[in-house]
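Quick one, T. Sequence first:
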Amino acid sequence: MTCSCQRPKPSKQNAPLRDALALALVAIGFILWMALYRQLTFLSDTLVSFFGLDRATPLGEAAAFFFYDTPKVLMLLTLVVFAMGVVRSFFSPERTRALLAGKHEGLGNIAAACLGIVTPFCSCSAVPLFIGFVSAGVPLGVTFSFLIAAPMINEVALGLLFGLVGAKIALAYLSFGLGIAIIAGWIIGRFHLESWLEPWVQNLRTSAETLPSETPRITDRIKEGLSAVREIVSKVWLWMIAGIAAGAFIHGYAPAELLASLMGGRAWWSVPAATVIGVPMYSNAAGIIPVVEALLGKGAALGTVLAFMMSVTALSLPEAIILRKVLSLRLIVVYFSVVACGILAVGFLFNAFFV
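Structure tokens:
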């Protein structure tokens, strides 16, 4: 005799209780996330000590960087992708593009660049939010404006520049940095290169257009966020670690004295040379300030040093390694080329007017 019993469907009357429970679990998860995030420096120092490494050595510095940035970037990736998945359940890609594309695209570039200023991310840490924007259907040029501005400009770096070289130059750096982010993003948007995204990202943008027409409940929105985490993080985490490893090696072994000697003159080629030298390095804007101070102390031209600083923060090799999982190689080349042109212009202008 077979049993014809079926599992009862969840009652709609229990839906508010399930929503409340889901919100509580998310809140607890976020508290645990914050607690762990605040301990990353301690965990990094503990691991360095555990392996018997000296922070004063290049290997110790590189290891500390890797032990700190690996969980930091992966945690940021998870949090941001989850949040973008939830947000995407509120705003369809059509509505998002209607707000940021077309006649509003320029405003979208400005808004994205300004958002980048107040987010204290290095180039690799900014990539998770960039991925979230792209997967949510935000115009590609707008996402690039954020990706350029976030690592290049932040309030800490501006404060340090103010104390180092004065208010006029700090404000000029802010203006030029914002200009590069906005204009470069707008130019990339004019090319309409969405087809140059990796296929899995294009599929995400397409599937985002098939959200259910009925208003989802809180539990549905949270499931959307978790689904986004599974879909995206599983595809990019290995590239994240590879990029951070490359950045850690560069962070520990970068030859500061050689950099100072190469940029010590005012020859015309010093600006493009500094831009090229900065690409394989990795740091955030605040972290590169001590190098900027050392270079200026060695007699390097201001425009050359700022071009180097912008190149390190906005065109890092680890960032390119991570972005390769999301963007095609030719799109990365376009991105680097457009931003490099802006950086070169800033370097030459500063050398011409701030002698």
